[in-house]
Design goal:
The complex is a heterodimer of chains A (about 280) and B (about 290). With about 280 residues, chain A is an alpha+beta fold. Helix content of chain A is about 25%, strand content about 30%. Chain A is built from six helices and twelve strands. Chain B is globular. The chains are: A alpha+beta (about 280), B alpha/beta (about 290). The interface between A and B is large, with 98 and 91 residues.
């Protein structure tokens, strides 16, 4: 025989269970209005993960798997916006190393030798404590720079896994670049905050070429304002000393007054012509 | 023909080749934003729950494993992420072209969808390299890519301002519709959700625009009409032709020639530091 107290407890428990079941049923019926409640269900394989790629490659008998990625990053309205928010350095790509930083992501760290810091701007990403180097990478020297980039290639279980940034191929080792980056000058670690927008290859004649094929505001500014010339860009940031004595002020004034592509070359005291000034759309 | 020097008055005649090239340039309109021809339209899973007849696209926020957006204490999905995904889905669902056409998809935040029915998965993970967010498609191993998609949001996204988070997720959902980037060329491309962020990570374009829907529909109706590719870098640093003895005169060397009747310009043009070549054009200089 049950006493009355036991019966009351049993009745309450049954009522609670029934209410929970009723609420659950009502929630399930509201199929068009999902709610932020976690489910215990777990997929057997995490789709899109590195291990998933490796498993599928092995199943297909492939030794490599390439996965393009599309990255959202920062962008600028043009050169003036870029110089306000980013450092500008000229640097040579020296080495690279890729890491699996999680189940889903690969990141590559590039080491650069900095040949010139054209502009040093305080970082907004690589502030103190941020942009830390992966274990195993040594701190950068005084003329070096570590720069991280999404994507890269690693080996796992006999499969070469390549996460390929769709619009931004890896830096070419040995190539010299002009970089608009978020950089912590004390740790010498930077972030490629502008993605490919802020990266320009530099040739032996000091001519910059954007790595990105798309038209961007920064690329357009560097072409139209500086004729893709690093020296002209440098002069805009750090104006050169006055022209050498001997330049004829009247000749300079006459040259500048001609317009239409003529400009006064301070270093040679000559009037020069650049067709790309009046018609920048015709120049690469 | 005689070398004349670099201080010659510009002739006034227009050259037919100049006109031809300009007209050719105008004939090739560029999508804003671009769409990718080798990315397949989503098939979705069933009909839209709103009864519109559109394709139902299941979006799921990861709720288990190392990339879960669930709060371990409560088991509930992070509310900021939840609201951001819900808002971005509604933004796309409600957006139309300038003529009132919606997309062919209805994004449906469906935490109950079976693993095989998830078209877009939102995970908590670093996109790498301090990037803001990323989207990955699935490789079909036949030169095409498609669903299921994985959108990575970094842990910091949990505390992003709601409007910014919504815009970022709407941008990433745009990739699942076959859209590429627009690179903030507001002057030439107008506003599009496929712009990037500002120089300090703020929103450039906060919501889906009419031209985003128009380009998504262009992709859906015939992806082969799109002008961009997914998974192909726009510029390769290696390979291709490199002149072993390049002559880099640009931009300072443009010579002018004249014969009895006309004036010619000869310029050594360059392209991305790869090679140099010479063109002779009457009246105007063309650097390809």
């Amino acid at each position: 025989m049950f006493d009355r107290r036991s019966l009351r407890i049993t009745a309450v428990a049954v009522l609670v269970v029934a209410l929970v079941a009723l609420v659950g049923t009502l929630i399930n019926r509201r199929s068009g209005q999902p709610s932020p409640i976690a489910h215990a269900q777990q997929p057997p394989v995490e789709p899109g993960s590195i291990d998933d790629l490796v498993q599928r490659a092995n199943a297909n008998g492939d030794h490599s798997a390439t996965l393009p990625i599309e990255i959202m990053h920062e962008d600028v309205d043009g050169f003036d916006d870029a110089r306000t928010h980013y450092s500008i350095v000229v640097a040579d790509a020296v080495s690279k190393q890729s890491f699996a930083i999680s189940a889903y992501s690969i990141e590559t760290w590039f080491k650069f030798t900095v040949t010139e810091t054209i502009l040093s701007t305080g970082p907004h990403i690589c502030v103190t404590g941020a942009c830390s180097l992966p274990a195993g990478l040594p701190a950068a020297g005084s003329n070096e720079l570590w720069l991280s980039k999404a994507g890269g290639t690693i080996e796992r279980n006999g499969v070469t896994v390549n996460f390929e940034w769709n619009e931004f191929p890896d830096f070419n080792i040995g190539q010299r670049y002009v970089l608009f980056i978020d950089m912590n000058q004390s740790t010498r670690v930077g972030a490629n905050a502008l993605g490919p927008v802020g990266v320009f290859m530099l040739d032996n004649n000091g001519i910059m070429a954007a790595v990105l094929g798309e038209d961007t505001n920064l690329k357009s500014d560097i072409s139209s304002r500086f004729g893709n010339s690093l020296s002209q860009l440098r002069n805009a940031i750090n104006p050169p000393p006055p022209p050498p004595s001997g330049c004829d002020p009247a000749a300079e004034q006459a040259c500048n007054a001609r317009g239409g592509g003529y400009y006064w070359d301070d270093s040679t005291c000559q009037c020069a012509f650049d067709v790309c000034i009046p018609k920048p759309w015709l120049c690469p | 023909m005689k070398f004349f020097g670099s201080k010659l008055a510009t002739p006034r005649r227009l050259a037919p080749i100049w006109l031809l090239l300009v007209l050719t340039g105008f004939a090739q309109a560029v999508d804003c934003p671009r769409c990718q021809k080798n990315k397949l339209p989503m098939a979705g899973h069933g009909a839209a729950v709103d009864g519109s007849g559109r394709l139902n696209v299941n979006v799921q926020i990861a709720f288990s494993g190392t990339v879960s957006w669930s709060d371990p204490a409560t088991g509930n999905t992070n509310s900021n992420i939840w609201n951001g995904v819900q808002g971005a889905a509604l933004d796309w669902n409600n957006a139309t072209t300038s003529t009132g056409q919606a997309t062919n998809y209805n994004f449906n935040l469906n935490q109950g969808a079976a693993a095989g029915d998830v078209d877009v998965r939102i995970v908590q993970d670093s996109p790498g390299g301090t990037a803001i967010a990323s989207t990955e498609a699935t490789d079909n191993h036949d030169g095409t890519f498609g669903p299921p998609y994985t959108i990575k949001l970094p842990p910091a996204a949990a505390s992003w301002p709601p409007n910014y988070l919504l815009a970022v997720i709407a941008h990433e959902l745009g990739h699942t519709l076959g859209l590429g980037h627009a690179y903030n060329n507001i002057a030439t491309c107008g506003h599009t959700i496929m712009n990037h962020a500002s120089a300090t990570g703020a929103v450039i374009t906060g919501s889906v625009q009419a031209q985003d829907v128009a380009t998504a529909n262009k992709h859906y109706n015939n992806r082969l009409n799109c002008t961009a590719n997914y998974g192909s870098p726009t510029l390769s640093f290696s390979g291709g032709y490199t002149d072993p003895n390049p002559r880099y005169y640009y931009p300072y060397t443009c010579y002018y020639y004249y014969d009895a009747y006309d004036i010619y310009y000869q310029c050594d043009c360059r392209e991305n530091g790869q090679y140099a070549f010479t063109v002779y054009v009457l009246e105007d200089v063309i650097c390809f």
